[in-house]
């Protein structure tokens, strides 16, 4: 852990907590820091990917944007795990529902992250790797949701490399395998955590439905998804 600051994170060692909450949108990181944390110090502004460290109920917690897509969160989570000594990264993002069980604003816990990405090819494994969340973080998130009367759905999600997919049959194929929702980052985060021997979890709020065409505004996605933020903050350690 001598490669700090990194090309993408301007923090010095010790400025980032052991647990980092990671929304995709850096403005959501700013919102969390300003509304949930005390004694906040900003540790990153490089590329406007804001990062902050503060206190939540006496616990030291960091929050930082991770960007869009697996290459972006792959860079940031790798550097946090391997150069800054971070033990836990909790992604708090948005997703499109693929299931009739889910409505707008529902919270999903990504137990596993199926993917159409080639991210795992770098490991030269003799088979197919299954990216999964840390069991402790999953179980703690379920318990925190119960304690705060927040309904969550736990299951398999899809981390997709494509937002606009040319294969118009892909959604139905993933749905047939029980995929709950689609997002673009969790699989890379889970793989980086596995390789580093660290912990990762993805919490998602449904911002739109692939089935019905319903969607929420960009402002809603940035400012109003407080239930998953609260779960993530409660389980930070």
UniProtKB/TrEMBL annotation:
Positions annotated to bind phosphate: 24, 28, 47, 91-94
Site (Important for catalytic activity): 221
GO MF annotations, alphabetized: purine-nucleoside phosphorylase activity; uridine phosphorylase activity
E.C. no: 2.4.2.1
Catalytic activity: uridine + phosphate = alpha-D-ribose 1-phosphate + uracil; a purine D-ribonucleoside + phosphate = a purine nucleobase + alpha-D-ribose 1-phosphate; a purine 2'-deoxy-D-ribonucleoside + phosphate = a purine nucleobase + 2-deoxy-alpha-D-ribose 1-phosphate
Domain of life: Bacteria
Active site residues according to the UniProt entry: 208
Residues the record lists as binding a purine D-ribonucleoside: 8, 183-185, 207-208
Gene Ontology biological process: purine nucleoside metabolic process; uridine catabolic process
Gene3D superfamilies for this protein: Nucleoside phosphorylase domain
EC class name: transferase
Domain Nucleoside phosphorylase: 19-230
A cellular component annotation (GO) from this entry: cytosol
UniProtKB keywords: Glycosyltransferase, Transferase
Function (record text): Catalyzes the reversible phosphorolytic breakdown of the N-glycosidic bond in the beta-(deoxy)ribonucleoside molecules, with the formation of the corresponding free purine bases and pentose-1-phosphate.
The name this protein goes by in its record: Purine nucleoside phosphorylase DeoD-type
Organism, as annotated: Clostridium saccharoperbutylacetonicum N1-4(HMT)
Lineage of producing organism: Bacteria, Bacillati, Bacillota, Clostridia, Eubacteriales
